[in-house]
Specification:
Number of strands: 22
Largest sheet: 9 strands, mixed
Oligomer: single chain
Structural class: alpha/beta
Radius of gyration: 35 Å
Number of helices: 21
Length: 629
Amino acid sequence: MFAGRFGIPTFIAIVHDFVAVMAAWWFAYLFRFNFEIPQSDSALLLEALFWIVPIQVGIFLWLGLYRGLWRYASLSDLKRLFIAVLLGASSGMLLMYVVGLLDNMPAAVVVLAPLLLLLIMSGSRLIYRAWKERRLYSLKNYEGELVLVIGAGSTAMSLVKDLASSRDWHVVGMLDDDPIKLGTRLQGVRVRGVINDLPFWVQKLNVGHVIIAIPSVPRQIHRHALEMCSELGVKAMTVPSYVDLISGKTTVSQIREIELDDLLGRAPVILDNEGLHGFLNGKTILVTGAGGSIGSELCRQIMAFKPNHLVFFELNEFALYGVQEEFSSSFPDIKMSFVIGDIKDAVRLTQLFTQFHPSVVFHAAAYKHVPLMERENAWQAVLNNVMGTYVLARVAIDFGVEKFVLVSTDKAVNPINIMGASKRLAEMVCQALQQSIAHSGHGDAKGSTHQTCFVMVRFGNVLGSTGSVIPKFRQQISSGGPITVTHPEMTRYFMSIQEAAQLVLQAGLMGGAEGGGEIFVLDMGDPVRIVDLANDLIRLSGLGEDEIRIEFTGLRAGEKLHEELLEASEDTLPTQHTKLRIAPARQVDAQWLSTLVIWLNEETMFSDEALRRELTKWVPEYSSNGSDH
């Protein structure tokens, strides 16, 4: 019954400690009398054990010493064990004093017995744990994947510690360029060499996986390691980003495959969290194009600052349904509305603003696929990107919106395609409206004292966004190739969707310091060759360049060989944020805007060629030559 109530392992542990108490006192007497215990003291020992053993084991049970498992014995368990032994010894001494046994007991035994008991009980538990872990460790030689860890810092050591109890991985070595660590053992794993020794150790140890555990180093190391792994035919993985680790979003043991973001070589964005909290917290925020890549990521970033109400505005029903499913389950405590509508529909927008009264608008809705907008859809691109921005901005002014943030593009700089020209026109619309507000010197038409501040944000391509080159390359790789690249020297600026959204929020916060109407340019880093991006994706897929061919197809309609973030005549101004600068672009006035709106409202359905000719009048820097490719 006793064994059935407590379970076989617990019963064995209790019996062990029962014997340990007797053994500790017996050894204490042996040491005291040089292993020759007098007969009188032997009788005293037996009588003392009659009282000591039950009270000591009873205290062990009372303090819950048997609720844990020996194989997981930790420092906190040893502390509890120390308290239990100390309390049991004190209680035993008190009881023996009451029954008159303590006076005849040697003082050395009284001190030595509890120490020996603590040594026996803690030692047996630690030995058992070591044996179990050694046994599991040896089993992993047959069950787990052999892996080398690149890095021997705190992150790598935490990773090795976490993987020690895993049956999936068996760490056989670490590589680090720190000469002090070479040859040492960290968490029981040897630092075998430097990072460039990877090919030697992969072949010698027959390793199939490599984990890069140095999240804070330059991404060139990730790229170099990936290239070596690709040549060796082993799988390269990495730990979560440094930002995710310090924020507590994830743990170091959640290893993952290397993504393109890891190879961009971009430092984490440092946000003015206090300022953004004041900018967004407790307010009603409207995001247009909320079902798209940028729009939905903006919403995710905004949620971190606890808005009072977030309004998702989207024309695409399926996209809106997708974000509703995601956000409703992820952020149940924040009020949200999911609204279908067209940014060109002034009546719908007025209804929306009357109902919700947003304080901040992030305008991410746009037609932005360059070749698709270049032919057959050119006029629709202009109507949506320009007229839609104007209608939305006018309603925002009428309802006293504090900030209106336009998500623009680097293709608006010296545009050679319809999409770029339409986004430059959208920027100019916002600039003209800001000028109009500044000259009017009063609030909005609804009686609010707020004057709307317009902010424009230009950036390049974001990895993995809808319609971007990355999903297309992935699909081509999964189909066995080839990957199609338009030109071997084509370059683009890239950043992650998360970074782009964070910097849009930061620009929205900073805009208005110069009176509004600023065009913020994001630091996009160095341009990336598209063919290099294709090769990176091939390697990330575990394939070689000889397995997936790359074909060059020539520039498409409206494409540039190299994108620009600034016009040749523009000189950016620094801001307080290292990744944001201000482009003092050419200004337009209210009269220009009135004429533009009349043109946009004409009943004429322009042909593609006629529209290109018209656009050169509105955007002097626009050249339609690129459309002939």
